[in-house]
Specification:
CATH superfamily: Winged helix-like DNA-binding domain superfamily/Winged helix DNA-binding domain
Order of helices and strands: HHHHHEEHH
Structural class: mainly alpha
Radius of gyration: 21 Å
Helix content: 55-70%
Strand order of the largest sheet: 1-2
Number of helices: 7
Number of domains: 1
Mean pLDDT: 91
Largest sheet: 2 strands, antiparallel
Low-confidence stretches: none
Shape: elongated
Strand content: 5-15%
CATH topology: Arc Repressor Mutant, subunit A
Number of strands: 2
Amino acid sequence: MTDPTHDDDEPRAVTDALDLVHDQWSRLRPDLDVSPVLVVGRITRLARIIQRRSDELLGDHGIGRADFDLLAALVRTDVPTSPGRLAEQTLLSPPAVTKRLKGLTAAGLVERSDNPADARGYFVSPTTRGRELLHEVLDVQLAAEAAMTTSLDPVAVAAVTAGLRSMLLDLEGRG
């Protein structure tokens, strides 16, 4: 199937990588509706670009985006949190959380405490230095994220926000 939002007789004024992917799949598999590639592919590509830019920006402060997300979750919740709960909040795998927490602990940004209800488990919380770093980089990170959305006018921001919220609620089974 072709893109229902595009008249094939008119050339696209501006294309991106996903337009090409869509068009290639449309030619290779005309029997399939490949239009979801235009949404899901763009979300995936944007996520990777944002991740890369965040890693570069935050790297100047000694952390990456995954470290930032863990530290931010700890600062926001403001209570000692289990690694399992952090994995749920950040959608990182439990081994990835464990690896990141080891690095953050070694850097003096988080500290471990025993879990009194589970002798094998533990909690983590941000140190004073971890809180300070998070607040220091939060301004920089939010400014960078705001800059990434400057091509969208307020109406587009509202539409994208609503559409992505709906999609997320549905995929998380809460819609």
